[in-house]
Amino acid sequence: MTLPDAMRAVEITEPGAADVLAETSRPVPMPNHDQIVIRLAYAGVNRPDVAQRQGNYAPPPGASDLPGLEGAGEVVAVGSGVTAWAPGDRVCALLPGGGYAEYVACHQGHALPVPEGMSLQEAAALPETAFTVWSNVVMRGGLKAGERFLVHGGSSGIGTMAIQVATALGARVWATAGSAEKCAACETLGAVAINYRDADFVSVLRDAGGANLILDMVGGDYIARNLKSLDMDGRLVQIAFLQGPKAEINFAHLMMRRLTITGSTLRPQSDAAKTRIAEELRAHLWPLIAAGKIRILIDSEFDLRDAAAAHRRMESSDHIGKIVLKVAGG
């Protein structure tokens, strides 16, 4: 297949509010060793995209400066050393950046087949949440059947995925959210919902026996409250800090109840580490999707040229599930 020289893309013209996102033309990327080029049909919108736009989340060395950490479409070119994919394959992929564009290059090991029966729109919203949730809840957090699991931001893309994964694994699930509508969405997926505006999640989890594992993206004063919510040998996994990364905590709680605090960020991890996560997903999560136990909740769709509106939707925190950009045909 002969690729065009240029493509539509959306770039960050300068750090700032959503209106710094602007449509532009960029050269179509060519695949390096172990890379594939995907013609994207859809791209997912995520909180890290917003942080990058604000100037708070720089791309790793060698990555595209364009935002966009996930997408789905068709493989159109492969580099040397690529054995997993061929032109014409339908894939969804975790991206180091560059997803707000018609074409994107990524490592062959970070792509996965579009699950059978799933649309490209849904598949585009799958990789970032799937990689994040599986690596932190299962691989790092060690969630087991029968354990009590709490996820904050239960109606977000990460939250809705975490609820479903934990439920499918046989855990008992609680989720915090900030409205009756969001709580209802969490309950539909299998969680006991806690409206944090009128209930104390610490008391709720303590009454239930304490959480064995908590997945948190809030930070701030939630950190100390999370530790109070954990049962003996409980684990706290931190993946973001919407309310800030600093907190005052009593480390005696860690000693007396043998607690573990850990966390991770996905984007800076090595190609090999991300490939290992992809292998785990293909072996364990993709069968759950095929069995109908995991689904993608799409909140809204915007055209690529309307990426600023998609970011404003994200920043409003009114969304339930994932926000996607339509790339092809826009």
TrEMBL record:
GO MF terms held by the record: NADPH binding; oxidoreductase activity, acting on NAD(P)H
Domain Enoyl reductase (ER): 16-325
This protein's UniProt keywords: NADP, Oxidoreductase
Superkingdom to which the source organism belongs: Bacteria
Annotated protein name in UniProt: Putative NAD(P)H quinone oxidoreductase, PIG3 family
